[in-house]
Amino acid sequence: xxxxxxxxxxxxxxxxxxxxxxxxxxxxxxxxxxxxxxxxxxxxxxxxxxxxxxxxxxxxxxxxxxxxxxxxxxxxxxxxxxxxxxxxxxxxxxxxxxxxxxxxxxxxxxxxxxxxxxxxxxxxxxxxxxxxxxxxxxxxxxxxxxxxxxxxxxxxxxxxxxxxxxxxxxxxxxxxxxxxxxxxxxxxxxxxxxxxxxxxxxxxxxxxxxxxxxxxxxxxxxxxxxxxxxxxxxxxxxxxxxxxxxxxx
Length: 249
Prior knowledge:
Layout: H1 2-45, H2 49-68, H3 74-96, E1 115-118, E2 127-129, E3 147-150, E4 159-167, E5 172-179, E6 186-193, E7 196-205, E8 211-216, E9 223-232, E10 241-248
Antiparallel strand pairs: 1-4, 2-3, 3-10, 4-9, 5-8, 5-10, 6-7, 6-9
Helix pairs in contact: 1-2, 1-3
């Protein structure tokens, strides 16, 4: 009798939850579908295939839920709300990542994942260079092919390369950077994750050649983060920065 009473109590509680959340779940279903569609399209457009795959999986899960007519219990609704909030945050961050320079259509895997959101409009110099360029008053660093060049917008406004991504395991942000090979040139590099500085401003000069930067991001493991790599001017003389690659190991 006690087991039967407990079962009836549980079933009654479930029915009450279904009744309570029925209308709200319909609203959530619509919002959830809309957010999934927006973020999936944005992820595919920027080449974030891993995020797009997770979104497709979430869509399949939602379709199964709706097809079976199953109503979410309280813990499931909490998860659903959390997922919607995650998608909203992701979408808001994607909207921030408007391209200033499009480097997604070149034959480099990393350029499909990172977005130049802010940079000086210096045509012929800023952007992607498949082969080294050697001009009288401007040149790319030697020794690498397929590099991206950016320049600060102004003395108080940096160039910025960004990516919104989920970090797993023990993530390490890696990049190879170089200043212009012209004499007495340099720039200032800074890296932020979710607005928190993980690489304080450091000067990269032409005398250093290609410099390897390795930044452990263990404190952000299992989180979705916005990574921003900033290039600041130093003495406002040939403050070009060149990136051979940027990746998360």
